[in-house]
Amino acid sequence: xxxxxxxxxxxxxxxxxxxxxxxxxxxxxxxxxxxxxxxxxxxxxxxxxxxxxxxxxxxxxxxxxxxxxxxxxxxxxxxxxxxxxxxxxxxxxxxxxxxxxxxxxxxxxxxxxxxxxxxxxxxxxxxxxxxxxxxxxxxxxxxxxxxxxxxxxxxxxxxxxxxxxxxxxxxxxxxxxxxxxxxxxxxxxxxxxxxxxxxxxxxxxxxxxxxxxxxxxxxxxxxxxxxxxxxxxxxxxxxxxxxxxxxxxxxxxxxxxxxxxxxxxxxxxxxxxxxxxxxxxxxxxxxxxxxxxxxxxxxxxxxxxxxxxxxxxxxxxxxxxxxxxxxxxxxx
Length: 332
What we know:
The chain has 332 residues and is mainly α. The protein contains 15 helices and no strands. Keywords: Cell membrane, Membrane, Transmembrane, Transmembrane helix.
């Protein structure tokens, strides 16, 4: 838990710094005035939609484990999935691989077998959001080049993960490296599972679930704009949110903090024509309802996992987080 605590403190510190800059950029007085006018009655609806989005993504997680023929009791699996949300503040959300460590403890499934499920989640998060971005771009009559670029990056990443030649090359490289050589035997299992999850059918199913789940979150984000009285159409807000979220992932900054905020506030100003104060307020509300709410849900999930799997197992997970290869060395 200590490592997660340090990471959370660093993320919060980074967030505070970013939001201070945001307040200055947005004119603190205008920002405060915009926030004061927010319709608080919408908060339960917004957080409810975001929670339903997580439920959809949990269904995708169950689907991936079913494809891999890994069985975990439903209640335990729900807690594991929720705990993974605590890693929303990790670079590209890839820290959610800790779910694989929990799954190993709950079912005995090797980490190398289930870690590709986390990678597949990130891949279909990307394809699902790109689809929403395309809808927004076409509705606003904007050039689709930026979404095509994101789609090309996603396609390239999937191709790399499925490439047997690259897997064999990586295995040969790792065998020659001290300390990392013990990872080599696990690459075959990782590549095999990646091929299963990123095949045509699982990719289509995962993307469809992602599209629907992210649609719920997009609706929640739109209601954030409604709550502030911003005059912006649904698909305009969706386009801005999609582009900013994808930029945050590609930045590999923990939680996309800074990159996402910059994308949101600048686009709300330029594309939607919002004042700096309103754009800053909307950016802050969106991030509270998505990034920080997810982190809170994740921390609650960790408490459940602590109760279900035991204190010692949770502690060992966080000691291994951030150095996943050490977990593999212990024989996953």
